[in-house]
Structure formats: C-alpha cells, structure tokens
Amino acid sequence: MSPAHSEGDPGTSHSDYLPPAPLIIPEIRLPFAGPPPRSDSDQLRTHALAWAQRYGLIGRRGAHRLSTTALLELGIALCGRAPTHRAEILVCWYLWALTLDDRIDDGPWAENGALDRFISAVQDLTESGAADPSGEISQYDDPMLAVLVDDLWPRTKCLGGKRWQHRFERHLIQHLRAQATLVRMRDTHTGLTLAEYLPLRRDSFGALFFFDLIDAAETLDPYEHSVDIEWWSTLREHGADIIAWTNDIHSIAKDVVCGERFNLVSILADTAGTDWPIAIESAHRMVNTAVAQFTAVAAQHKNHRSCAATDPNRLRQVVRAACDWHGNVSRYHLHTADSTAQDNRQVDLTLTPPTLKSRQFEIDPYPLYERLRTTLPIVYDEPTDVWLVSRHVDVKAALTHPGASNNNYTWQIGPLLGHTIVTMDGCEHAQHRALLSPSFRNKALAALEASITSVTTDLLTHMHGQPQVDLIADFTAALPVRVMAHVLGLPAETREEVERLKSWCAIGFAYMGNYRQDPALLTGGLSNRDSFYNFLQPHIDARRAAPTDDLISQLLAARIDGQPLSETFVRSYCAILMTAGSETSHGALANLIVNLLSEPGVKDAVMANPDLMDNALAETLRRNPPLQLVLREARESLELPSGTVPSGATLACLIGSANRDPDQFTDPDAFNLSRTDQATSHFAFGAGRHFCLGSMLARMEITISARMLLQTFPNVRWAPGFQPTERGFLNRCPDRLEVLL
What we know:
globular, 5-stranded mixed β-sheet, 3-stranded antiparallel β-sheet, CATH 1.10.630.10
C-alpha cells in the first residue's frame, strides 16, 4: 500500500511549511485485532528480496535496507491465511508498489508525462495479458514493466477468474491514475479542497487493489453473491479511508519536511484556516468517525450471507496491521540522533532534517544546506539511510579520516564494474593510484595540452556562422569526452562517435550516483556497461597486439606485484576514467561559463587578463561545484568536530554545503574573483587519499577551452530571454546554455 508521496511546490522553501511548535501525533487506537503472525515470514521476505534483485527492482543497498528494517512487515501481514505460494505473489506486489512509490517520491521520474506513459503500458499489458502477442518483452527498458509482463502479471492473473481480474485491473489503474493526478497538480501548483482530496487519497493509497489481492491469495470471493456487493464494497471503502488517513497523520512530519502539500492534515489546515494542532486533531476525529462507520456497516454482517469471504474480521486485521505499521515504521519518524529517546508522538520539525529525497535538493539545495550547517550539522537522513555532513570542518575531517572507507562503492558501482580503484583503500589503493597517476601528471599532461587545444579549436570552428548555439550540446558536453577518449586511445572524431560516448558516460555516471536506487538506472547501467565493453574490446585487442602511447596500452603493460592487470580491471578502468573524466568536467565548464557571462565584470576582467581564468575556475568550483556530494562508509565510530557518526554508517559529505560554509569563506554565496587562499580549500575534487586523480587535467582543459571560447567569440552573451538554470541532485549544472555569438 502506497505511502504518501510527491513533494510540494518547487518554488516553496522548506521553511514555509514548518509549523511554529512541535507537533503532537495522536495515539491512534483501533478496536480491531491484528492478524496472527505467519510461520513462513522469513521465507516470504527472502523470496521477495531475491525476486526483486533478480528483476532489477532493487540493488544491493535496497536489499540490505529491506532486510534490516520493518519495511516489508506490512506486506507479510497482509497475506492473512493465504498459502505460501500465493502469499509470495502478494508480497511481490507490495514490494513492486513500494518501489513505484519511492520513484514518484524521489524526484523528477514521474514528471513530464513519464508516469502517464507508465500507466498506459501497465493498462495495456494487464488487459491483453502481454504487451506484445509474440511474447517479446524487450521493448520494456523499465524493469518495473518488464517484471510485470514477464513474471508478476502472469502469476497474478492465475489467482482468480475473469471477474476478479477485471476488478483488480480497475482498482490498480485507479490507484496509478490517482497518483498521476496528484503529480500533475503538484507540478501545476494546483490546490485541492477536502472533498476533492478524499476520493483521490483513497485511490492513490492503493488499499482497494490490495484488498483484491488478499481476496485472491486466500481464494475467497466476497462478491460471489450480488446481495453482498454493495455492503462489502462500502465496508472496504471505510477500511481504505482509515488506512490512508492514519498514514497521513503519521507521515505529516515527513510530508512537511519534503514540502508535500497533499496530506489530510495540511489540507484541513489550509481549507479550514486552522493551526496545525487543530488540523491534526480534526484528522484524528475523521479516523475515529471512519472506524465507527466501519463498525456500523460490519454489524450488518448478520443480515448477509455468512461465509469466510465476507467476514469483517478479515478487513479488521488488515486495517489494524496497516495502521500499526504506519505508527511504528521508521519511514515516517524522521528523528535526529538526539531526539530518538523522545516520545515518538512529539515531533519537533526544527530538529527534523531535510531529506536528500526532497525535490528541493534537485531545484535549489543551498537553503537546505544552510539549515543543516546551522542547526543539524551531522544528522541521520532516514529515507536515504545516510548521515548528512554539511560543515566545511566536518567534511574535511570525514574525507581525510583514516576510519572512513570507500566501501560504499561496493553497492554504488561494484555490481557494475566489480572491484576497482574507487572501491579500494589502503595499500591496494595506493598501488593502483601510483599506476595511473603518471598519465595525468607532468610530461603526459603537457602532451595532452595539444589535444585539448585541437579539440577546442574544432568545436569552436563548427560554431562559426551560427548566430545562436547551445554551448552544452555544442561545446561543454563534447569537449571532455573527446579529450578523455584521446587519453585512452578511443575514436571520438565524428558526431556519432562523440554522441555514443557521451551517452555511455551519462548513463554510467547516473548509475554510480543512483543514491535513490531507481530501478531503471540499476538495469540500464548494466546493459550500458555491456554495450561499452563490446565497443571497447576490439581496441584492447588491438593494443595488446600493437601497443601505442595511449593509456589502454599502458594499462596492458602495467604490473602490480609482478602480475599484469586482468582484462576485467583494464575494462573497468576505461569505464571509470571515461565517465568520471567527462561528466564532472562538463559540469564545471558549464558552470564556469555561467559565471563568466552572468557575474558583473567577470568576463571583461578575464578577457583583459587571461590568467584570471584560473581564479574564475577556482571560485566556480567553490561556489558552484558540479559534484554536490560524495559518500563514505565509517569502518569505525567517527569523531568529527561537530559530532559522531556511528560505525558502519554511510555518510554523505555535502560538498555543495561545505563550499559555502561562512565559517570558512567570507560572503560564501557571492562570486568573488579576488579570492586567493580561501578559493583553494574547496572540495570540488574531494580531499585525502581519494583526491581526484584527474584534477590537473580537468583544470587545464576547462581553463584552456574557456579562454579560447572568449578569444574566438569575444561578444558571446546570453540569447534574448534565456536564463541559465542550475539543476541536479548530484551533478549540478545547467542543461542548456543558449548564447549569441
């Protein structure tokens, strides 16, 4: 059943939603007995996790989280008395719906019609039995659709007859369409009255289609006799309302922190003009009224045919299980470490951290960073299961602490590339870094300057004669791809070759930065890797037969402890260097261009003194770093200046926040070309043992190309009406730079 989802108005800040005082969440007591425990709970959990990983719905991190928290408990509780083989299908549906909710919650996936297209595909395949009569399912790149047509729906439709299938399909599509409606209303900043919200909430939560699943899993048909249909449907609607409204009450803190406007409590507060405590009490009274209505309708049971299918106790158990789960699961109780001992019912939102799952981190994270630095410098973010580290002094300590490891990359990139330099620590890391470092230093770097100049000249030449260009498409995205391809010795001369490499790099980087564990990125990354490796293999074979002076040849000739690198290592190094050397350099160059053209006097100063381009880049990397955060894992309890991160925790070092810390940088939000000592203490390239290997190459290619851009087109300026906009949760930069030349 779907938790409350979708963040609020992108133009509204987190602080606009904060109630002035702690919220008291009422204790919701239902006069219903819960379901008996199942003896096969462990089996159901194990099956669901293996199934979800096999079909790419979750990765290693997701599986670990689901196996160590109570998130799956509700799905198991819903199974009632169903035999294990049928209960397994229900728990898989629960995990499928939970994954979909997270995708809608976590950012822009559902926007721009994507969710509507997803719903159309779901409707096509459930109504036809398969999207393609031939049985081919390769058309579905989305693993949630692929698993539905390949496995989940074929198993599900065998649970009941045609009449049950039609009812289930109707409720499933109603659930998905209600979610899409709320997403559209969020995106268009549309308000909702209470009367409009209640039926939408019942459908968007998804209880009705889960009630259908429970019926089929228990091989019961409460609609077998026409006299029972209206009575049982009414009873189910009351039960669905109790569950959805209870969820809203318990999730109010999460929704407020995420800026979610569509919650029963907030709608009551808005439409009635009441304060938050009164709105919470009003919502609680609505739950109690729904419980009374459910009880009254259930009492009519004696007037209907007495059978197990229409026993109200079945619904009572489901409602109780759902409400207990909402009251206890950590998903809705976002406490700071210092407040965990407090009563769960009291929620002080000033001590509740903004979550990385908030869309505001995509749109404008800097107000959130400021709040974190000021009040919650080291704090646990429950929705992403990471500790947020936001102050400069703490980020520096975390990145350089001997007890902080790169073990987080075992789930970030390990499933894609295996054990590589990014997952290494200690002596092993030092050996492999020493192997690669010469290719990005001294003579090798000087040799690359000619390549950078040549590529830049070619890109600028193609712009001549065009009055208006997009510098992202025509310059910043192509330049680092071509330079890194030259380093490796890969072809990147034609537009087709460059576009193919750009696509591989973008998908690979998205996989590595998939902190939110979107399933399409998980499966898309694996197929993307295979495609890149197929392209790469002939070049490796050729260098093995006839070495040249490129990096692939050097990797093939390298020895560690007297042994050559395996071909797996060589391929993974090419993938890492190609991706890391392209995406962040592109973002840094794009952000530098924005500052050159938007900050008063900066372009003129740099054109008058080209040496100032180094200052402009350093200040850009500080104020507008393309890479906003990096993860680390605590191999021991980490004592940082502002607090402690527990052993085993994943910590997010918020580079974008540390680089604007006023305790380190004077007037940190301002772009100041004259910064000197301060400008070099940013973390755009990281810090410590894992400081960016290609930092010198990145600086050189960005400054050379930016200087040449201004020299070639000294009148470059924004196109009329165009305003560059930074976006992105991880790699933050504009997606367009429309300029007149």
